[in-house]
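In this supplementary section we document a worked example of the pipeline. Step one takes a protein sequence of length 224 as its only input; no multiple sequence alignment statistics are reported here. Step two produces a three-dimensional model, which step three serialises into structure tokens for compact storage. The input and output of this example are shown verbatim.
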Amino acid sequence: MSKEVFFVLLTAILFTTHEPVSKLIAGDISPYAITAIRFFIGSLVCLPLSVREVKRNYIKLGWRDFLVLGGLGVLDICISMVLLQVAVKKADSPALISIIFSLNSIITILLSAIVFKSKLTLVKVIGIVLCVVGVFASTDIGSGSNIESVILAILAAATFSVYTILCKKYMAKFSGVIQTGISFFMGSVVLLLALFVGGFDIVGGISGSNIGELLYLSVVVTGV
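The serialised model returned by step three reads:
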């Protein structure tokens, strides 16, 4: 198994635990606070690697670079991940949101065809159709349940796909390691500041009974 495939599989396995673990503490901690805290702590795990990558490759980061990285962080954390976390809180089942969010891979394929002129082969088209059918069958929209959470999850998937495409576009200068650490840090700081200015109780609801789950989401799911 190649290193790249291993990392993809590890990421997939860890990220599938996000929704169910988040649901465990959704009644105690605000989805906005969960998102801000987990990405801030997660960024602290990633930042040392980002700094090392910058120094090792003698990369000079100007204000435009930080503007791009900050914008990516805001798009991912303040918009996409907040939408996802709110969807988890409102949904009856965290598995439902996980299935819906998987639409981001389909949207990313379509956006790649537009932005990078990637060829849409027959196999890809068939795969997209089957995935869409599977997602809608799993959400049971006909019953009228979870409509709000489904819409939020779809919006989260769509904005995450845009984030993915923009990351790929700027990957020529910034490696994934640099992008992740710096954009996570800047995006989480923006969200924390927004919550603080808005008079939001960021640490409200955090206790000994849920700190383990929050740290798991922060260090393992987000950082690792």
